[in-house]
TrEMBL record:
It is an enzyme of class 3 (hydrolase). This is dITP/XTP pyrophosphatase. The active site is at D75. It comes from Novosphingobium kalidii. The keyword Hydrolase applies. Binds 1 Mg(2+) ion per subunit. Belongs to the HAM1 NTPase family. CDD domains: HAM1. Its cofactor is Mg(2+). Mg(2+) binds at E46, D75. Keywords: Hydrolase, Magnesium, Metal-binding, Nucleotide metabolism, Nucleotide-binding. It catalyses: XTP + H2O = XMP + diphosphate + H(+); dITP + H2O = dIMP + diphosphate + H(+); ITP + H2O = IMP + diphosphate + H(+). GO terms for molecular function: ITP diphosphatase activity. InterPro entries: dITP/XTP_pyrophosphatase, ITPase-like_fam, RdgB/HAM1.
């Protein structure tokens, strides 16, 4: 059985404001006091892993060790079937950092355009199916850790639509819907997203009876 969270304090090991907001909302019902890696001034570790799990563990372990409290990290990304699963673990890297987006800002429009460009090169009848993955890693300062994985399938849609959410949300239409994640109110995204799917597993394992 995996180790369980005993205390109320949990460090959220992310430097992405969009993720932090979603993780805070998903943890809200469980009485957890969330601290953020950004607010504590922890450095952003280099993501050298080649899988979501490796990167999530790397981020959670670094934060738990630095702050000496349990830490939760999220490594996620978009995989496009016709592109052989790219950008996948490199989803954030495809959005280059831009000075005009602020200190940690990335150019999501350029990144979404890059994926669209590759799909267009592949032909007009190209398969637009894709999926978001999310791996959550919990790590304790003593070295224990556990991971939970979630997914959501959908279609890569162009042009981008909607203003809610973050990252690639404006191009992702979840299966069975005709709006993008960026057009869905947060509570609806939280019912079906890859992050919600991974959280359901975390909650069952950590807070279940
Ligand atoms: O729900 C989502 N809606 C839209 N886009 C998303 C989502 N979930 C992940 N994504 C994209 C953007 C993110 O930047 C990248 C993950 O990269 P990833 O390294 O895990 O996150 P990050 O560098 O932005 O923040 P950090 O590592 O500090 O947690 O995939
Ligand atoms: Mg990252």
């Amino acid at each position: 059985m995996s180790r369980r969270l005993e205390g109320k304090r949990l460090l959220i090991a992310t430097h992405n404001a969009g993720k932090l907001k979603e993780i805070g909302a998903l943890l809200a019902p469980y009485g957890i006091e969330c601290l953020s890696a950004g607010a504590l001034g922890l450095p952003e570790p280099e993501e050298t892993g080649i899988t979501f799990a490796e990167n999530a563990l790397l981020k959670a372990r670094a934060a738990a060790k630095a702050a000496q409290i349990p830490a939760l990290a999220d490594d996620s990304g978009l995989s496009v079937t016709a592109l052989g699963g790219r950008p996948g673990v490199y989803t954030a890297d495809w959005a280059e950092r831009q000075w005009f987006e602020g200190p940690l800002g990335r150019d999501w429009y350029m990144a979404m355009g890059k994926v669209e460009g590759l799909l267009c090169e592949a032909g007009t009848e190209v398969d637009r199916s894709c999926w978001f993955s999310c791996v959550l890693a919990l790590a304790w300062p003593e070295g224990d850790s556990v991971v939970y994985e979630g997914r959501v399938h959908g279609t890569y849609s162009w042009p981008p639509r909607g203003t809610m959410g973050f990252g690639y949300d404006p191009v992702f239409v979840p299966q069975g819907r005709d709006v993008t994640f960026a057009e869905l109110p947060p509570e609806e995204k939280h019912r079906i997203s890859h992050r919600a799917d991974a959280f359901a597993k975390l909650v069952a394992d950590q807070f279940g009876h």
